[in-house]
Amino acid sequence: MDLYQASREAVLRSRALFSNIYQQLNKESKNFSPSFLEANRKTRDFETSVHWLTTAHIIHQAFQLKEHITLPLISDNSNHFRLFLADIGMFSYQSGINAASFIANDRENTLSGIFYENFVANELCAKGLKLFYWRGKASAELEFIIESDNKLYPIDVKKGRGTLNSLSKFSLHNKYEAAIKVSNGNYGYHVEQRLFTLPFYFISFAAEDLAKGTLRL
């Protein structure tokens, strides 16, 4: 029975971690920060909590990649990762914001970016894909990097059209099969950039193809 027993401290840390996923994502870096939850703590102090919550499919964990990427994908540093809530409704609840404001066109919501990132993370994980994200120099960043059929597929998440400066910087160091931009725009394909533009409702189908290794240009 000792296997299933947990200390009071471990339970409290798990609760604190879960309750602050939204706040962690709302930071500039979005990376998990143990000191954000408890002063003078290190990431390893929350390893058990992260393991419990990911095993229970309550949260999803995305691992950081930097500059040049090699296959198979392996995180460059186990202390650099992001956490997402496995339930988008819970994300809205933690934010304290009416969920409709994230998708409304008549107002600007500065938090809508992480709302959509969390949504895409859930769709990818639902198909069994492992999450990675890429950070380059000068704030260059791609929300997700997916490995499928031994090929790289960078994914950029935008509420609107947005620019893809980070994809250009990513391509300086890495070869990719195709890039995917997920937004509220229409479906499209840019031949020179090998860039799919997918509406948010279509990401589930693309994630299934990525999981099967059947996504084709």
What does this structure look like?
This protein is α/β, with parallel strands linked by helices and 217 residues long. The protein contains nine helices and nine strands. Helix 1 (8-19) packs across helix 4 (47-55) and helix 7 crosses helix 9. The longest helix has 15 residues, at 112-126. The radius of gyration is 18 Å and the shape is globular. The N and C termini lie far apart (53 Å).
Helix content: 25-40%
Number of helices: 9
**Shape type:** globular
Radius of gyration: 18 Å
List the strand order in the largest sheet.
Answer: 5-6-7-9-8
> Class by helix and strand content?
alpha/beta
Low-confidence stretches: none
Largest sheet: 5 strands, mixed
> What is the number of domains?
1
Number of strands: 9
The proportion of residues in beta strands is 15-25%
- Give the helices and strands as they follow along the chain: HHHHEEHHHEEEEHEEEH
What is the averaged pLDDT score? 88
Termini gap? 53 Å
Summary of the model, kept short:
By secondary structure, this protein is of the alpha/beta class. Helix content is 35%, strand content 21%. Helix 1 packs across helix 4.
Q: What key attributes describe this structure?
A:
single chain; 217 residues; alpha/beta; 5-stranded mixed sheet; 9 strands; 21% strand; globular
Reconstruct the topology from this structure.
Layout: H1 8-19, H2 21-25, H3 34-37, H4 47-55, E1 59-66, E2 81-85, H5 88-95, H6 100-103, H7 112-126, E3 131-135, E4 141-142, E5 144-148, E6 151-157, H8 165-173, E7 179-183, E8 188-190, E9 195-199, H9 203-212
Parallel strand pairs: 1-3, 6-7, 7-9
Antiparallel strand pairs: 1-2, 3-4, 5-6, 8-9
